[in-house]
């Protein structure tokens, strides 16, 4: 549990660093549409970090369900936000990884579905 909470805290730190980087450094080199996409990646990352903190400290969710939700959100952050960061700030062609962002979104959706079903069964 300690390791996962440390990872989640580190991801929260990264969301703040990326947000500051986008606000202060990228505005000089990216167009407004790319900045907006980058900010979407940061925002979704932070939303899911906050939920992960809740999920992993809430004692009415089983460890098994916590793992499923946590891994779903972590993969979602990596694929969704990571692909947006790679495309907007990393110079990766959107055409080469077009499928990665929506795949990350599917992991987010699955995690939210699992969280909702977990609450329903309680």
Key attributes of the depicted protein:
122 residues; 4 helices; mainly alpha
User: Biggest sheet: strands, sense, closure?
Assistant: none
pLDDT < 50 runs, ≥5 residues = none
User: What spatial form do the alpha-carbon principal axes imply?
Assistant: elongated
Strand content: under 5%
Mean pLDDT: 96
The number of helical elements comes to 4
Domains counted in the coordinates: how many? Answer: 1
State the order of secondary-structure elements, H for helix, E for strand. HHHH
Beta-strand segment tally:
0
What is the rounded distance between the termini? Answer: 22 Å
Rg over CA atoms: 15 Å
Which structural class do the helices and strands define?
mainly alpha
Helix content: over 70%
Outline the structure in words:
The protein starts with a helix and ends with a helix. The chain is built from four helices and no strands. By secondary structure, it is mainly α. The chain has one domain. Helix content is 79%, strand content 0%.
Helix/strand layout:
Layout: H1 2-24, H2 32-57, H3 63-88, H4 100-120
Helix pairs in contact: 1-2, 2-3, 3-4
